[in-house]
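The following block was generated as part of the benchmark described in Methods. Ligand: N,N,N-trimethyl-histidine.
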Amino acid sequence: MILTTAVQTRFAEEVRAGLTKPGQKELPSKYLYDAVGSRLFDVITELPEYGLTRAESRILERHSREIAARVPHNVAIAELGSGSGTKTRRILDALCRDHQARYFPIEISATALAACEREMRDIATVSVVGIEREYLDGLLEVAARRRAGEHLLVLFLGSTIGNFEPAAALAFLRKIRTMLDPSDFLLLGTDLLKPVPVLLDAYDDPVGVTAAFNLNLLARINRELGGHFVLSQFEHVAQFNETARSIEMHLRSRQAQTVAIAAAEITVEFEAGETIWTESSHKYRLSQVSSMAADSGFKCAAQWIDEAWGFAENLWMAG
Ligand code: AVJ
């Protein structure tokens, strides 16, 4: 049975728009994270080839005290895309050693939100309020619940900003900035540019977990929208876009084929070798990170770098 909720209707609309677009077909990367996809992503973070998450964890482990020291005590913490919350625990532990704080994970995946709430439950000084919304709607909600004199720390970790095209990333950061007061902060994770072979291995691992993560998007369309994708007829492709400095994931049709998707009311034709673009992960130079801050109205308060992998954690101050 196919359940139709507002979320499913939106999913169907976006699938329809992306797969009927002239030229490059595409699907939004946010739909990679259903229950299966979220778990596959957790496995990706354990792969030796995918150093991003471990790099960020090292930074947060090594510098959580310093981060906490730079942020006001009376703070509400809003996290965009909490995932399972393991990394955030470190920050919350450090921030809330001897004082109370409120933590608002904002997440469209109910599964991930539940896992995150479980993870934080036993930190005595932290009260957790999960918000099942898209990032900006969720942040608006948190801003509305802010108490007098309470500062806001927004966490946007894991280099998820890299999934936005540069113009959209800037628009997104500016939007965040408009919801903040001058002494609020944003902690932003950015994966740095590194040699292409390293990136290709990270996004096309030999075990095939990333391939499964990508292909699951088609399986999800089958499950939730009555799609008729035959998964063995598509293959995972990772390629580096030199101009954009981003690693792209695609799903390539192994042959000419036609796929019907009931709930999206479409039948899609694929040529042999044609791809669906499912994700871009932009890799940054440090100078780009600085310009992003300036161009979106933030000031860089501090930056911590993991040299071993190439990852920067940035603490930006609004105003
Ligand atoms: C969670 C968005 C940061 O872009 O590296 C991992 C997702 N895609 N492998 C990334 C992902 C393929 C990941 N982010």
